[in-house]
Amino acid sequence: MKIGIIDYRREPPGSVNDLLEAARRRGVEAVYLKLPLMDALIDDGRIVVKQRDEPVNIDGAVLRGIGLVMSLDVFEKRLGVLEALASTVPVINNPFNALIAKDKWRSLVRLSLHGLPVPDTMITENPFSAMRYAQAKKKIVYKPLMGSLGLGSALIEDPDLAFQTTRSLMNIGVPSYLQKYLEKPGYDYRVFVVGGRVIGAMRRVSKNSWKTNIAQGAQGVPVREEEAPEIFATAVKASAILGLDYAGVDVAEDVSTGRHYILEVNAFPYWEGLRASTGVNPPDYIIEHLIEKIKK
């Protein structure tokens, strides 16, 4: 058996190396595939994927990322190559589903349509709409539409700032993704789902910031299912609705309502914080899940 780990970076990042090592521990040959160097062909009716003119002969693959800043044409090319590969072998996560999950707005719409709880949210290019939304909600958070790690997120309490932020972004062709601020109890949850079951979860506790991302200084505290059964069940449902084989699901409580809400579902989740706090190594589970899909 031979599998590929796909990413866009010149050198394999830590998460890719973790997956390569997890595969090798199971006696599975694993190779790093660089998405910018991959091509897809229709050759006499056959779908063929190559890297540097060499056919990509693998039995399955794990997708870790497609890139950050690129033109629409490059984005469509990379998605097309990934979909071509996924038509011939199992790719987790499925490229199309992963990109819906990566888009915070589209993923929340899909979850909401299936009845799962998500925060009040707006997407707009109109500064006046943003200002009125900030006036109505009193306290909102601006988030990059396809960002991660809490980077770029900003708390907005002044409607004029919402107006100015959206107008500035509009001038460079970027929409505003605005979300009602949740009064968290000082923490939220990251739940890691693989193959339809939770393999590990943690509270992300922050004492000095409203942001509860591990990358922003929060501390991870392991959580067992019996401590938060509703959170675990919600994470599994969210992952299934978005069609993800593996996912990091972020869930937060709003103390003003006593309800839990899905903040986002990460199709390319990092796991260093979860591994450090729980001792669970997600790459082992991801590779095992891929092996099972290949054998089917």
Automatic annotation (TrEMBL):
Stored Gene3D superfamilies: 3.40.50.20, ATP-grasp fold, B domain (3.30.470.20)
Limits of the ATP-grasp domain: 108-291
Matching InterPro entries: ATP-grasp (IPR011761), ATP-grasp_RimK-type (IPR013651), Rp_bS6_RimK/Lys_biosynth_LsyX (IPR004666)
GO cellular component, one term: cytoplasm
Keywords noted in UniProt: ATP-binding, Ligase, Metal-binding, Nucleotide-binding
GO terms assigned for molecular function: ATP binding; ligase activity, forming carbon-nitrogen bonds; metal ion binding
Signal peptide (from-to): none
NCBIfam families according to UniProt: rimK_fam
Name of the molecule in the record: RimK family alpha-L-glutamate ligase
